[in-house]
Amino acid sequence: xxxxxxxxxxxxxxxxxxxxxxxxxxxxxxxxxxxxxxxxxxxxxxxxxxxxxxxxxxxxxxxxxxxxxxxxxxxxxxxxxxxxxxxxxxxxxxxxxxxxxxxxxxxxxxxxxxxxxxxxxxxxxxxxxxxxxxxxxxxxxxxxxxxxxxxxxxxxxxxxxxxxxxxxxxxxxxxxxxxxxxxxxxxxxxxxxxxxxxxxxxxxxxxxxxxxxxxxxxxxxxxxxxxxxxxxxxxxxxxxxxxxxxxxxxxxxxxxxxxxxxxxxxxxxxxxxxxxxxxxxxxxxxxxxxxxxxxxxxxxxxxxxxxxxxxxxxxxxxxxxxxxxxxxxxxxxxxxxxxxxxxxxxxxxxxxxxxxxxxxxxxxxxxxxxxxxxxxxxxxxxxxxxxxxxxxxxxxxxxxxxxxxxxxxxxxxxxxxxxxxxxxxxxxxxxxxxxxxxxxxxxxxxxxxxxxxxxxxxxxxxxxxxxxxxxxxxxxxxxxxxxxxxxxxxxxxxxxxxxxxxxxxxxxxxxxxxxxxxxxxxxxxxxxxxxxxxxxxxxxxxxxxxxxxxxxxxxxxxxxxxxxxxx
Length: 567
Fold this sequence. Notes:
The chain is built from 22 helices and five strands. By secondary structure, it is mainly α. It is globular. 47% of the residues are buried.
């Protein structure tokens, strides 16, 4: 017999995941990384630098500059949000924490939008489980709620979500706006006001954060899905056409907004033009989207008849379109991982629809693999922390001293208590999962989501001093200050945006372009080589080499400090 759907779910399998447990899990995932962490080098530090320039009124709000350089992304909305938060924050809150607060809210909104998006898609007629002959199948509302819990757990379990979603950059803004558009398209058949508001906010946010092409593709894909759906899809044909026309108008408005702000740029810059580099892209997909991608592929296989059907099924085609757009953007633009980040909500949705079709043996395999992997990772984190604090065992502490020379371990009773509580919760969850209890379709993703949260929380508590020392520019900036002191300004040559922002944030140094007319007593030159003569472009008669300073954790990353030798 050909079943109309591969989902066979009894009512007993859709019991509700306790709200307190789900909220506590989300809180444990969101807070670490936004609180108590230094800005890390790269996009996080550069964005903080631009926000400081705007908040302190040292640069134009419409054309921010940092050391004479504009931002590497066109969208200004993330910088405005951080700068406004810095200006409105009370005096007792540090600037970097103030700038992160709106981005923490964006991550929370991303999780909420994903949950409701999966919930609305799971209520679609084509997504419903098979009706039993004598009753007892899952009720639509309970089934949708359980599927939404599974989708949110799948998103939290994705390994690639952790670091980019905790950085105050445009990529987190784009992720949140993508989730809003996804929710708007998923909920449009059931509501009007909330989806329309989410659609406008999501498309405008994508344009203003530097991703107008994605906004256009999302809207056009949703419009095509509505206009091509047959009348038998569960909605009146007139309503479907009206939704499609609204989406076309929204796409046109997004394109006009991007054109008026001159945000259309040619961004095709792939690092995988050579077929030999495709293996690295495959590795990125493998770990960044784990464990959502294997479940998503299983969904495509088990629901293949519905995907190929003439009757378009929104619960499959909508997340599939969002995922394909993200994968294509990751393959054709840089950085690939940040572009792939936008596809995680859609991949988590596809992963959720694999849950009603999983065999018990596959679910057990996922549980045991997750249990071993995250338990081993947690034990390794605890062993290294114990070694740095007590010297026992000695080898991990020796490895840390070799990789991060000059690092002095710090002890915090509060972070230790948080880490102990998280580890105890993990042990309790493992005991619950391995015990006898009623089956629930979301049970296979509880351990992956909790394990990813545990690993992230332990890293950002026990290992936070080590990570700050290794991934921050503060140690190198302090070494520079010991040489140059606090001059009125310094010249910079070859410094990237992150280094200029770090000099401004950690050292209060005003960096001027070396090609300009500023007359500063010191010159800082970034060079990864070890030249026997002064760096290229430096006049040996005008400048004298004063110091050669490397990052403690990267001895090949030098900053050459020159003192002006002529008046």
